[in-house]
Sequence to fold (680 residues):
Amino acid sequence: MDNKLFDSIIKAKGVGQIILKKFNDKQIYTKVDLLLHLPIGLIDRRFCPKLDQLEIGKISTIFVKPIKYNFPRVRNLPFKVTCEDNFGKIDIVFFNVRESYIRQQLPLNFEVIISGKISYYKNKFQMTNPDYIQSIDKENSIKKIMSKYSSLNGISSKTLQKIYFNESNNLQEINEWLDQNLLNEKKWLSWSASIKRIHNPEKNEDINKNSIFYERLAFDEILSNLLLFKKIRKRINKVKKKNKFIPDEYLELIKNKIPFELTSDQIKVIREINKDLKSSKKMMRLLQGDVGCGKTIVAFLTALCVIQNNYQVAFMAPTEILASQHFDNFKKFFGDQDVNIEILTSKLHKDKRKLVLDNIENGKINFIIGTHALFQEKIKFKNLGYIIIDEQHKFGVKQRIELASKGNLNTDVLLMTATPIPRTLIITNYGDMDLSTISEKPFENNISTFLKPNDKILEVLKFIDSRIKNLDQVFWVCPIIEESDKLKVKAVNERLKYLKNNTNHKIDCMHGNLNDKDRERILSDFLNKKINLIVCTTIVEVGIDNPNVNTIVIENSERFGLAQLHQLRGRVGRSGSKANCILVYNKNLSELSKKRLKIIKDNINGFLIAEEDLKLRGYGDILGYKQSGEKDFLIADPLYHSHLFDLAKEYIDQINNIERYSMLLKIFNKQKIFNIIDAG
Fold:
């Protein structure tokens, strides 16, 4: 069957080059892209009042008779037509419309139907530039319920509605991929019928996210994601690697090098990872844990086990600061082990860099720590056996596929995140990976959280003075670096100046615009307690690990997501000492913002906070970033469709023939990733 779903949007009726470009700017390239951008609401024209029942601001369809024209001969003044029914009068107002058009559409003393929004001006009801004008005999041509779409700059809503109307009503039926029993149970229509109904609703409920039409499409989108993960898992499971040998005695030996006891969760996760390392199946595992739970030490211990098998390990950190700290910490704990560890950053001198790259290629270096450059550059490993990615939020499905192909068949992969991920997002974003979780922390509930309005900043300053006198060090976080007229928030430079003028403490600042030399100097001085307080941006979120910092102030805290606030709070109290987090907020807060800050104040559990963040902010923003290389869900929403995520997870296990779903995968643009997998 010749299906035109995947034709360019330029072939849609009413789309020319100007509209094509505007659609492309919204990532709409084909007809199916257009149809998957569902309505954002409804325009209901069923309210048909008499002229003594009009409501200001309400879309109304009125039956009236034009009785008088008013065509001013002064430029820029609007044309008006006075209309009446048996109960009152109304002015129909036109801007930028020809007189001849008005006379044609609204002939005097002939009853017409007019639809648009009612307004009130100079003690008169009026309707400006009505949406529809029809003669009485064409009443049925005015759709009483219409879909409303995201606007395209410069394109009228009427034009958009026509394009969507034409394409949805010309949609051909396509072969069904879902099991008939499921369709019957859920009372779902076909994919094409569901698309048609949502774009051409008959009732207000039709476009609700829990309507049978919407749920059918949401389930399909979720299923397309899970089919992709099923394919990736199948591909990974085909790979047979050499088993890595990990003696229990060696593991006990290196565990004893650590000056603290591992938690039961850390021990459990080490067992899970080592079980994968020892198997003949390639490991693709996600390690999630709350901030401060001790993921890095788990990574170090399992890395040492791999190095014992004469493999190389690559450890990728999100920032050079964190890469340097990982490097220093490894040497501090395991410096006496037979490990040649090096760090690869942009600061390396050219000659040193060449030496490091040569030693990676010849195998002399068996543990290399760096940033994303580890995999972007043409670095050749002699025998890469283990890749660890720390805090890599931006690793989408495509990047993980590419990552799995690095090294050789014997390379295992561990991704770590300190942003706890809600359950529904685990299913849909990481379904290709096995999951390990550390929920237990070495130091439970040692951080107290306080809320302070921004007009109480002197009280905050007084508290900070007392903490520094007790030899505490402090982070003071601001959302931006420089002052901005558009954003009414505190900037780093502004707060730095204020604190220097109002305290005697040793203060400096840190942000992304500093050069490497200054950043390294400030960080070194801070770690060596030569600086009491650092004013900074969220660079500390994944960047600075100082066990002596036990107080953090976060200004304009209402502007941050809950997950990010929890991450920032986790930068203090890392030695187990009692710590403090002060959330400074703008006192003119919305109810939603108050609710969000109360959640942070009352909870220290990152997993609970992540679930609450999902409820309050929705899927697109929960992790504070877009999944790199992937679109967010267009239709499915965990807030409304959590039951569909669970249903899809059950349904996927019954699927043996993925070919049956090729049209579904193409519709949701997963086929390209499938092709990458098939190409190896």
The chain has four domains: 1-40+157-178+188-202, 46-142, 248-438, 447-603.
